[in-house]
Amino acid sequence: MRILSRYTLKRVVFTAAATFLIFCFLVMAVETFMHLDSYISSEKTDFAMMASYAFSALSNYYLLLLSVSFLFSVSYFLSDMSANNELISIYGAGISKRRLIAPIFILACTLTVIFFAFNETLGLEWKDYNIRLSAEYFGQSGTSDPRNISLYDESSGYLVHASSYNKESRRLYSPVIVKSNEGSIEKRIEARYADYDNSGWVIYDARVMQKGEEGFSTAFYDSYEEEGFSMEPSLFESQNMRMETMDASSAYDYLKKLEKVNPTAYQEKMTDFLSRFFEPLSIFIMIVIALMMNYTFKKNILLFSIVQSLVIAVVYYVSDMVFSIISRQGMAPAYAVAVFPFLLTVLLSLVISKIGKRI
Length: 359
Prior knowledge:
Layout: H1 2-34, H2 36-41, H3 47-57, H4 62-83, H5 86-92, H6 97-119, H7 122-138, E1 147-153, E2 158-166, E3 171-173, E4 176-181, E5 184-190, E6 193-197, E7 200-212, E8 215-224, H8 233-237, H9 248-261, H10 263-278, H11 281-292, H12 301-328, H13 336-356
């Protein structure tokens, strides 16, 4: 049994590794040709520059390439055994299909855990490296100042909206700060800008409207400090950061604050976060679907098996893209991007398996 397990894992991993390397080469080649004009016009273009960017671009595709590679590998392994009548010998020896595919299932679980940990650690640094190279080589910066910022601090009751925030000077432009208590507005501050120093926020050219016993009163200040307003600058900086590169704890804190003040932006950001969070699960999904597929075609076993694996992969990733767009637009819950493509692909694989038994 150990010999069979080693044989199974060796063939699956070797085929997947070879397929993955081929896919990586193709992606790097495509990325290079996509930016060929920029390389030609740049005075500092060399092979190291082109290779470094092409490699960094793999950070956006490596999980997709891995999942498709293992889908193809498992499909090829099982269809090849069926075509060569090896499955008849294995089943005849009293080894069930469940026992045959058990090592592959364990491999799927192991790879999912490994690449989930990788994606949340080194994977984030890899993607950030790609963003920095894009900014350096092509001017595609992902670090421009955030604009149209809205944040709410539930603990203090402050709602803040600003036209933009400058990370270098830690300055909010055209801030509007509203203090509320149990749904009632107590103070509203409008200003030209606000700077953050070690002691807190200093608000300049401020117009302060405060609620009193006889209604709201208005006062003007050249500089003004609101004692209870103590939001950290990092919260405003995070408005600019992508969910793909934020660490999980920072992303979670940011999403909690964003949910209360800007539901539309929250839906979009939560969809991006869940897409990243469940992305490593695609490896497990593709391998499990490959194990579920039918390999008992009466003829052209290899051809039909490869075709059905390609069809299922295309359906999964197209549905993932479609549900991602729908979810970002608020037309479906954020978790739809993880759940619905999986259910649709499983259903399709079952239908293909039923049809395959008649071919």
